[in-house]
């Protein structure tokens, strides 16, 4: 072996992949880190669920009682009797469905124009629209409230619907997904005589189910958990949402810890079920957004 052959051999050794045992060790460390992170996220929800099945005296016992003994199912009956939970959930559901439908429709329709229709000033208009994401809502909250009051929309559910029916984030998300759809497919449809509305309805929407599902879940969760909007615009008790109602319930029954946890579980449960049912489309939509086809 000559001196010139030594560096080549060393380079080959350095470029060899790590042994299988080393890769398995790294993988186990990654799984362990994910397990710890998942536990840190899920433990508070588990404690909330278990606390909703305890008596008040057992909620904050030391050491922590991880399993209720006995199980107090009566909390899920008392919460309906001591609060106006039916009205809160009904109002929240109405707002969430209406806002989600409008945001998905307007966001996907506007995104089609920005992504697939050429017109003068398209890029400038899109950048200006997306730039509104950088403007905090608190900066124009008061003028907006004055405007809605003069339009007699304050203290109505229409105020929240009008406030959140349009969103720049939805347009941005859908535009990124639309750009992954080949333009040749749309050009062929135009040659066949299909209108832009027909292309949007018959081609773009069926091909964009993952992105539509992602936008639906994100908008639904945001609207369901919204606190500031209903706090400012909905003053009548019969218009309160679940977040406003739970806040007043906590103020009234601040010593009823088990009932507070029960209300929290009922407020989280619908969103958790919807997310679990649609998580496959959500992950697919987020992962494929922005990929060029």
Automatic annotation (TrEMBL):
Annotated keywords: ATP-binding, Cell membrane, Membrane, Nucleotide-binding, Transmembrane, Transmembrane helix, Transport
TM annotation in the entry: 28-49, 93-114, 126-146, 158-178, 199-221, 257-278
InterPro entries per the UniProt record, alphabetical: MetI-like, MetI-like_sf
Record membrane topology: Multi-pass membrane protein
GO molecular function: ATP binding
Chief site of localization: membrane
Presence of the UniProt keyword Phosphoprotein in the record: no
Domain ABC transmembrane type-1: 89-278
Cellular localisation: Cell membrane
PANTHER family assigned: ABC TRANSPORTER PERMEASE PROTEIN MG189-RELATED, ABC TRANSPORTER PERMEASE PROTEIN MG189-RELATED-RELATED
Family statement drawn from the similarity comment of this UniProt entry: Belongs to the binding-protein-dependent transport system permease family.
The protein's name in its UniProt record: Sugar ABC transporter ATP-binding protein
């Amino acid at each position: 072996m000559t001196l010139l052959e030594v560096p080549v051999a060393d380079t080959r050794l350095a470029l060899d992949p790590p042994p299988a045992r080393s890769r398995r060790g790294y993988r186990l460390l990654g799984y362990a880190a994910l397990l710890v992170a998942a536990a840190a996220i899920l433990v508070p929800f588990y404690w909330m669920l278990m606390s909703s099945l305890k008596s008040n005296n057992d909620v904050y016992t030391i050491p922590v009682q991880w399993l209720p003994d006995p199980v107090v199912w009566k909390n899920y009956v008392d919460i309906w009797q001591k609060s106006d939970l039916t009205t809160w959930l009904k109002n929240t559901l109405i707002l969430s469905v209406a806002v989600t439908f409008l945001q998905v429709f307007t966001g996907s329709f506007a995104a089609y124009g920005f992504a697939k229709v050429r017109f003068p000033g398209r890029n400038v208009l899109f950048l200006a629209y997306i730039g509104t994401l950088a403007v905090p809502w608190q900066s124009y909250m008061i003028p907006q409230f004055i405007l809605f009051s003069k339009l007699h929309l304050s203290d109505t559910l229409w105020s929240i619907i009008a406030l959140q029916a349009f969103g720049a984030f939805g347009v941005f998300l859908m535009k990124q997904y639309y750009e992954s759809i080949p333009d040749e497919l749309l050009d062929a449809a135009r040659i066949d005589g299909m209108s832009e509305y027909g292309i949007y309805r018959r081609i773009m929407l069926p091909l964009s189910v993952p992105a539509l599902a992602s936008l639906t879940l994100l908008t639904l969760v945001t609207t369901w958990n919204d606190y500031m909007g209903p706090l400012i615009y909905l003053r009548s008790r019969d218009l309160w949402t679940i977040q406003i109602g739970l806040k007043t319930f906590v103020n009234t029954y601040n010593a009823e810890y088990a009932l507070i946890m029960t209300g929290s579980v009922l407020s989280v449960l619908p969103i958790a079920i919807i997310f679990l049912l649609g998580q496959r489309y959500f992950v697919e939509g987020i992962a494929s957004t922005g990929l060029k086809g």
